[in-house]
Each structure stands twice: as C-alpha cells, then as structure tokens.
Amino acid sequence: MSLKAFHIIVILISAIFSFGFGAWCLRFYLANATVIYLLGSLFSIAAGAGLIYYIFLFLRKTKDLRVP
Questions:
Q1: pTM of this structure
Q2: How far is CA 31 from CA 14, 21, 27, 51, 67, in A?
Q3: How far is residue 7's CA from residue 58's CA, in Å, rounded to a whole number?
Q4: In sequence order, which residues have a C-beta less than 8 Å from that of residue 18 and are 6 or more positions away?
Q5: Are 64 and 17 in contact (CB under 8 A)?
Q6: How far apart are CA 35 and CA 40, in angstroms?
Q7: What pLDDT score does 66 carry?
Q8: pLDDT of 25-36, one tens digit each?
Q9: Largest Cα–Cα distance of the chain, in whole Å?
Q10: Got the DSSP string for the chain?
Q11: d(CA 23, CA 17)
C-alpha cells in the first residue's frame, strides 16, 4: 500500500468517526436538550466536512505525482 493510499484511508476513517460522533451528539442533544451536545455535534460535523474537503484538495495536489 502506498503512502498516498494510506493517507486517504486514514483521513476517510477519521471523517467517518467524526460524522458518527456528530450524529451521536445530536441524538443526545435531542434527548436531553443540553447545549454542549449541540456544540459537539456542530463542531464534529464541521470537522468531518473539513476532512472530506481536505481529501479532495490532497487528491488534486497529488494527481500528477508519480512515485515508484
């Protein structure tokens, strides 16, 4: 496995965990109406979106990179 593929897999797994944590926080916010869960949900979902955006930037930057 190349370093590029490993990097993409690690970032994708991080994004999935971030979205999952955001959904978990949102579920607890809807059950308890505590603001800290809402903030955790918003920041986690924003972090997941940022990681997905980062993957696209990384792929565009390394598109022409040829490593043997």
A1: 0.81
A2: 26, 15, 6, 28, 50
A3: 9
A4: 44, 45, 47, 48, 51
A5: no
A6: 9
A7: 73
A8: 999 998 988 899
A9: 54
A10: --HHHHHHHHHHHHHHHHHHHHHHHHHHHHHH--HHHHHHHHHHHHHHHHHHHHHHHHHHHTTT----
A11: 10
Structure tokens that stand for 36 in this block: 């800290």
| Residue 8: both structure tokens together | 């993409």
Find the helix packing angle between 3-32 and 35-61, rounded to 10°: 160
- The dihedral through the CA atoms of 55, 58, 63, 65 has a sign that is negative
Dihedral over Cα of 59, 60, 63, 68: its sign: negative
Other C-beta atoms closer than 10 Å to the C-beta of 22 total 20
